[in-house]
Specification:
Layout: H1 18-29, H2 33-65, H3 70-119, H4 122-127, H5 130-172, H6 174-189
């Protein structure tokens, strides 16, 4: 049996998509289901609050600053400040929750890899350097950790912000919104 990890073979390479990779990681994430749901809810809350703030600022400018009603400006400034404080707390919690999910998932993954390495025959270790194995395991698991703790949050949050911004644009001016959204959709499709 050939165990050489350093030689890539074209017939073993497969172009798995994002969802195929998530399916492979799903068993590791099953025990984190509750934390993932809570983390997703903080991401959605954060995205909604980030979308509401510019709308409130625009409303304040149109209704209160133009009419020189400074009591309304102060009231909406306080509301916007509270929204930004809630956004700050949800950002903190989403980072803490998803960071914990990432660390626990990587811990379980490393344990599974260690158990798998224990079952491999001696020939495997004769053909592959221990340093290469450790380097590969550390690099791959650290990339997965970064994905769970940072990239996944940004990806999901940005999707919700783009969808919400598209909805707001369409609500403000439907025709103008279509002219802005259709080219963006064409770029995404093609």
């Amino acid at each position: 049996m050939n165990y050489e990890l350093n030689k890539l073979q074209d017939n073993n390479k497969s172009d798995n998509g994002f969802f195929e990779t998530i399916k492979k990681l799903a068993p590791l994430l099953k025990q984190e289901k509750q934390q993932l749901i809570f983390g997703l809810s903080t991401i959605i809350t954060n995205s909604i609050l980030n979308l509401i703030s510019p709308v409130l600022i625009g409303y304040t400018i149109d209704k209160y600053i133009q009419n020189k009603n400074y009591d309304g400006v102060i009231r909406f400034a306080i509301i916007i400040f509270v929204i930004y404080m809630i956004t700050l707390f949800t950002s903190y919690f989403q980072t803490k929750i998803m960071g914990g999910v990432g660390q626990r998932t990587i811990f379980n993954l490393r344990n599974n890899i260690f158990l798998k390495l224990q079952d491999l025959p001696i020939d495997f270790f004769n053909q592959n350097k221990a340093g290469d194995l450790i380097s590969r395991i550390n690099n791959d698991t650290s990339k997965l950790s970064q994905f769970f703790s940072q990239s996944l949050m940004q990806f999901v949050g940005n999707i919700f912000i783009m969808i919400g911004a598209g909805i707001f644009i369409l609500c403000i001016n439907f025709k103008l919104g279509l002219f802005a959204i259709i080219p963006a959709l064409l770029l995404l499709i093609f």
